[in-house]
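User: Run a structure prediction on this.
Assistant: Running it now.
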Amino acid sequence: MTTFETIYDSKPRAHPFARTDRSALGVWWWTTDRFLLGTVLALIGLGVMMSFASSPSAAARLHLANPFYFALRQCLFGALSVGILVSVSVLSPRGIRRLSAAIYLISILVMLVLPIIGHAAKGGDRWISFGGFSLQPSEFMKPALIVLAGWMFSESQKGQGVPGIFIAFILYALPAFLLIRQPDFGQTLLITCAFGAAFFVAGVPMLWMAGMMGAAGTAFTVMLLTHGHSQKRLATFFNTSGQTGRQVDRAADAIHHGALFGVGPGEGVFKRGVPEAHTDFIYSVAAEEYGLIFCLALIALFGFLVVRGLYRAMKLEDAYEQVAAAGLFVLVGLQSLINVAVNLNIIPTKGMTLPFISYGGSSMLAMGLTLGMALALTRRRPRSLSGDFIGAAD
């Protein structure tokens, strides 16, 4: 005799990632923008590939026995970044707010004590070292700041007496001051532009925007003219003698040598003369070994990521989710633009990595965090069978 239990037990189970799969992972898969996810994974894969191209020259310059020392570490960082990306992207918008608040607080506390416990590199105290690994807290502060600023901007629009704009500016001013103190003008410029983008998306009056732009422009001018390290970089950039600086010159030679299709994987020679070829100048290594076509495709990937992300952000109905998501995608796009512009000698050197492509644990892990937050905020929120929103904000 057939019973209800035997009929139920004989029903086929939903396969993983099937549309009927109601597990947390299945719901995540069908609510996440898979075009954005695929683009991010492709960039991480390309970053690992490029690390194998740049690692031997960097290891030889530092007299390391293993020529693929940096490539193997980049593989580890890439895997950890994917783990962070997926883990964070399953969170609800409320969870993203809470995570951002914790990361922001910890990052600010670490940045406060960097002059005591940090070590200097590239003209500033920006890193702390432990267990053979260097961590740059400002990398993790950036996405947390943008999310919290988006939250405050949205709260100010509700008209419930919350001084959201004032709080957002305090949240911005504190890390900006700490970055200037290090000094790290590149990161200060980056968070200022991303904060301004969130400011604009939030619909804040243009008078506020004009005032912010004027104040930021004045502050940056004063900083650049009074800080010795920045003056040297500016003098190098505006040098008309034909020798703009060894790194920039060698990067330009590498890009020119690669032509359209490159000289082939591992065949680059000019990269050996670029001290930061595996980090800040990884774009020039890509240009030499894989050519202009590859570099244009790489830029197109970043462009698609930003444009698709902004498109998804603008379709969101919740103000906090919209502003925060847009700010995060602008943050990634601006950092990519700055790195490529430095490699092409369009702007002075900034010491800024190319997201997911350059070698660096802090950069790779922080970018996994940033895009994980962005994917979480842009996920679709369909109703479950019980009528609740999956991953809803409240």
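The first strand starts at residue 119 and ends at 121.
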